[in-house]
């Protein structure tokens, strides 16, 4: 690379000096940036319930066991099909003809002796009307069709589906997407009205309601803290409803 002349180097240094801000401006820019960072709200992650972790692990173990059993069943069935020999169609074996001296004439059965005085056929017996009436079939009332029962998924599958839905709700709450979180909470209430994670649903509903300023959010938060004072969600509910907490205590 060619070396710059003194005139070119002086021009380059002057251009750099005109482009770079002075130390006072750099300090002011840094202070303004730090002030914005201090004012920005810090999103607090929702605490995951220990029981939820256990249920997630249990559901994953059940799913792995079901998948392993299915693979073993398929492999055993294929091995049995491969081990079964194919039976070839047996060809008919021709028997040699018997010698002439061993052939015997077929003996035909003798005809039955005929009766020289044939008898008239007996008259058929006719049942009396009373007996016919007594034997008339009774008409049975039609049976009602069996009621169709709605099949319910197994307990392990229900737990797996409920855990997956709660994970989506927590992700929406952490991301600040309150409309999506409310829609998923309503879906959980419809599909799992008596699910195993009602405490999680009540806590997340109170948090989303307080952040959105719902009228009933304060009462829901206070009711949750009274019912579950030692819940891992209690602190998160208090933080989310801090501005509405006096109203919650008065209700």
Provide a compact summary of the structure.
The protein is mainly α. Helix content is 57%, strand content 0%. The longest helix has 34 residues.
Keywords:
251 residues, mainly alpha, 10 helices
Protein described:
There is one protein chain. Mean pLDDT is 72; it is low at 85-91 and 129-134. Helix 3 (50-83) crosses helix 5 (155-174) and helix 5 runs antiparallel to helix 6. The protein has a domain at 157-250. The longest helix has 34 residues, at 50-83. The radius of gyration is 46 Å and the shape is flat. It has helices at 6-19, 23-39, 50-83, 129-134, 155-174, 178-191, 198-212, 217-227, 234-240, 245-250. The protein is 57% helix and 0% strand. With 251 residues, the chain is mostly helical.
Structural class based on helices, strands and sheet pairing: mainly alpha
Count of individual helical segments: 10
Q: What is the number of beta strands?
A: 0
Uncertain regions spanning at least 5 consecutive residues: 85-91, 129-134
- Secondary-structure element pattern, one letter each: HHHHHHHHHH
Approximately how much beta-strand content do the residues carry? Answer: under 5%
Could you give a short account of the major beta sheet? none
Report Rg: 46 Å
Question: Secondary structure elements and their pairing?
Answer:
Layout: H1 6-19, H2 23-39, H3 50-83, H4 129-134, H5 155-174, H6 178-191, H7 198-212, H8 217-227, H9 234-240, H10 245-250
Helix pairs in contact: 3-5, 5-6, 5-7, 6-7, 7-8, 7-9
């Amino acid at each position: 690379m060619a070396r710059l002349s003194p005139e070119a180097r002086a021009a380059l240094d002057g251009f750099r000096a005109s482009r770079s801000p002075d130390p006072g401006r750099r300090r002011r820019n840094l202070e303004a940036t730090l002030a914005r960072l201090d004012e920005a709200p810090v999103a607090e992650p929702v605490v995951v319930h220990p029981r939820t972790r256990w249920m997630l692990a249990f559901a994953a173990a059940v799913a792995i066991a079901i998948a392993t059993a299915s693979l073993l069943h398929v492999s055993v069935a294929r091995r049995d099909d491969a081990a079964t020999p194919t039976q070839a169609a047996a060809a008919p074996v021709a028997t040699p003809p018997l010698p002439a001296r061993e052939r015997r004439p077929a003996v035909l059965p003798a005809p039955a002796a005929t009766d020289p005085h044939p008898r008239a056929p007996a008259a058929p017996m006719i049942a009396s009307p009373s007996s016919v009436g007594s034997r008339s079939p009774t008409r049975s009332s039609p049976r009602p069709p069996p009621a169709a029962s709605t099949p319910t998924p197994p307990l392990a599958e229900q737990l797996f589906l409920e855990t997956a839905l709660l994970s989506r709700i927590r992700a929406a709450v952490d991301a600040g997407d309150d409309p999506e979180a409310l829609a998923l909470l309503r879906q959980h209430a419809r599909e799992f009205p008596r699910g195993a994670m009602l405490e999680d649903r009540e806590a997340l509903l109170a948090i989303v309601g307080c952040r959105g300023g719902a009228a009933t959010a304060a009462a829901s938060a206070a009711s949750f803290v009274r019912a579950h004072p030692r819940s891992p969600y209690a602190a998160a509910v208090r933080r989310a409803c801090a501005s509405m907490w006096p109203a919650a205590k008065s209700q």
